[in-house]
Specification:
Distance between the termini: 57 Å
Number of strands: 0
Structural class: mainly alpha
Number of helices: 6
Oligomer: single chain
Length: about 120
């Protein structure tokens, strides 16, 4: 029961941090650091790796793996290899994928900008 209660407190803390981040009170890097701590506490001391971040990014997108690979224009087999840990995804690719998704979210929230 203690471990479950502890995880619940971590999740609550992360949710609060996310709300503060959306209000631009704190920087998103702080929330990312807290998310890693939550993952670390749940998985026996392992920090979230690129594979787990890829899976989380895909889940957040609401796409299946095929759609996800087409969206990012990355071969489906490559995505599968990264997902299953057969190949290691380069750091810069993961960061670019996260950046693209974040920018798409911001565009959806902010509407269209008529500047050219």
């Amino acid at each position: 029961m203690g471990a479950v209660a502890s995880r619940s407190k971590w999740f609550a803390a992360v949710l609060i941090l996310r709300k503060l981040m959306h209000r631009e009170i704190i920087h998103e890097n702080y929330v990312d650091a807290m998310r890693c701590l939550v993952y670390n506490s749940q998985h026996g001391g392992m920090l979230m790796g690129k594979r787990e971040e890829l899976i989380e990014l895909k889940n957040k997108s609401g796409m299946n793996w095929k759609q996800f690979s087409e969206y990012y224009e990355i071969p489906y087999r490559t995505i599968q290899d990264w997902e299953h840990g057969k190949r290691e995804m380069p750091d810069y690719v993961l960061r670019l994928m996260q950046y693209k998704m974040k920018m798409e979210e911001l565009l959806k929230m902010g509407g269209n900008d008529d500047r050219k």
